[in-house]
């Protein structure tokens, strides 16, 4: 068989990411490629940094996108801030907290793992106990928006605790940025990373980060080289920082067109307004919740700890997880996510991120799930569920 141009199907993406990409972003990606040291491109880089500062709610000078997925944003923070022998406390309440632990050990740090139940926010009491037991700790890391469970943790409280014990903080905001309140300066977050493919309505492949002066000072005071050449911020900043004459030192060839897309996505977020974007995600979460509950489905995370943009839904007894997701994809071109780790086979993860957080997507999801569940003998009232969702959307 002779290969031909790839033509992807048109899907509605309501899983844990990527989310639907806004047409304006897709259009931006198709603009002419220019050199990554072109003066016009350099000017756009400065605009991206300013737009990211708005999205993160920060004035941090070191705010930029890493030229790689969100996982590389995570690794950037850890390999730059963790030196061999540093004691690092990691709060784990899902898969991505576990990945933080991997980064600590690979960077040569001494890991102190603090577990909270899956589907719950990070427990600040457990963190404080660990801080008391480990006065030598230098860093506390946790996930604000745990994508594997749909749980949201109180970032301001956890950062405040860490600072009380003289620790820097690393926060995973991959699913939070653009969809949930995130106040980097207001909460005093020292280092934060995110992803382009979720609530920013952009394509995968870029990882916005922001580090404050406390974090930068630790990097500059390192006694050992950063273990990753590509992610060494001492080198990357030479490319992302102007010398006053718009000159940049060569580090790598930036993903030019992908950055066009991120610029457009951040511009749209600014046009909508951060608070309005947060409110949209919350309203759509309520509508989806009401519709799902009318179908007899339950969300696993307690109401005051839920992420609006990632909903973990218990799979009814006797219903096969993979079969439902396959039918949604084949019949409705609708993607929802499977459970990970402890939640594998137990939950569906339904995302409402960025451009995917739209009324028509919510109604499609409820209608399609209702039809399939009825076919599988669950006897659900799809009409009533749609009415509940529409009522929430109209408020």
TrEMBL record:
Cited PANTHER family = ALANINE--GLYOXYLATE AMINOTRANSFERASE (PTHR21152:SF40), AMINOTRANSFERASE CLASS V (PTHR21152)
Name by which UniProt lists this protein: Alanine--glyoxylate aminotransferase
Keyword Electron transport found: no
Query: Which cofactor names does the annotation list?
Result: pyridoxal 5'-phosphate
The coiled-coil segments of this chain are: none
The answer to whether the entry has keyword Ribosomal protein is: no
Q: Which SUPFAM superfamilies match?
A: PLP-dependent transferases
- Report the source organism: Halochromatium glycolicum
Which ranges carry the Aminotransferase class V domain? 33-339
Q: What GO MF terms are annotated?
A: alanine-glyoxylate transaminase activity; L-serine-pyruvate transaminase activity
Alphabetized, the UniProt keywords read: Aminotransferase, Pyridoxal phosphate, Transferase
Please state which protein family the record places this protein in. Belongs to the class-V pyridoxal-phosphate-dependent aminotransferase family.
């Amino acid at each position: 068989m002779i290969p031909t141009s790839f033509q992807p199907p048109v899907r509605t993406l309501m899983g844990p990411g990527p989310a639907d990409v806004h047409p304006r972003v897709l259009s931006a990606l198709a603009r002419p490629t220019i050199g990554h040291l072109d003066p016009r491109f350099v000017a756009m880089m400065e605009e991206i940094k300013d737009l990211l500062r708005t999205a993160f709610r920060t004035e941090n000078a070191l705010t930029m996108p890493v030229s790689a997925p969100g996982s590389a944003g995570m690794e950037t923070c850890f390999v730059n801030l963790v030196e061999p022998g540093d004691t690092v406390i990691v709060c784990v309440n899902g898969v991505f907290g576990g990945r933080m632990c991997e980064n600590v050990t690979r960077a040569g740090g001494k890991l102190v793992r603090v577990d909270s139940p899956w589907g719950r926010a990070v427990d600040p009491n457990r963190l404080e106990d660990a801080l008391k037991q480990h006065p030598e700790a230098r860093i506390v890391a946790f996930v604000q928006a745990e994508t594997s469970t749909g749980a949201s943790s109180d970032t301001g409280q956890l950062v405040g605790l860490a600072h009380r014990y003289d620790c820097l903080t690393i926060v995973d905001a991959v699913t939070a940025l653009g969809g949930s309140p995130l106040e980097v300066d207001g909460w005093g977050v020292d280092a934060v990373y995110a992803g382009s493919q979720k609530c920013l309505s952009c394509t995968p492949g870029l990882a916005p980060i922001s580090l404050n002066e406390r974090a930068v000072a630790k990097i500059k005071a390192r006694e050992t080289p950063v273990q990753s050449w590509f992610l060494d911020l001492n080198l990357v900043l030479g490319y992302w920082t102007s010398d006053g004459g718009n000159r940049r030192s060569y580090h790598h060839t930036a993903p030019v067109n992908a950055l066009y897309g991120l610029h457009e996505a951040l511009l749209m977020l600014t046009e909508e307004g951060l608070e309005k974007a947060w409110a949209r995600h919350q309203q759509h979460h309520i509508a989806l919740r009401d519709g799902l509950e009318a179908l007899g489905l339950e969300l696993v995370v307690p109401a005051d700890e839920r992420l609006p943009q990632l909903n973990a839904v218990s799979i009814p007894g006797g219903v096969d997880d993979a079969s439902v997701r396959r039918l949604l994809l084949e019949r409705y071109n609708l993607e929802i996510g499977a459970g990970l780790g402890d939640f594998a086979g137990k939950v569906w993860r339904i995302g409402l991120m960025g451009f995917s957080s739209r009324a028509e997507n919510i109604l499609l999801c409820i209608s399609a799930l209702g039809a399939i569940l009825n076919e599988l003998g669950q006897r659900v009232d799809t009409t009533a569920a749609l009415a509940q969702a529409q009522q929430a959307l109209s408020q």
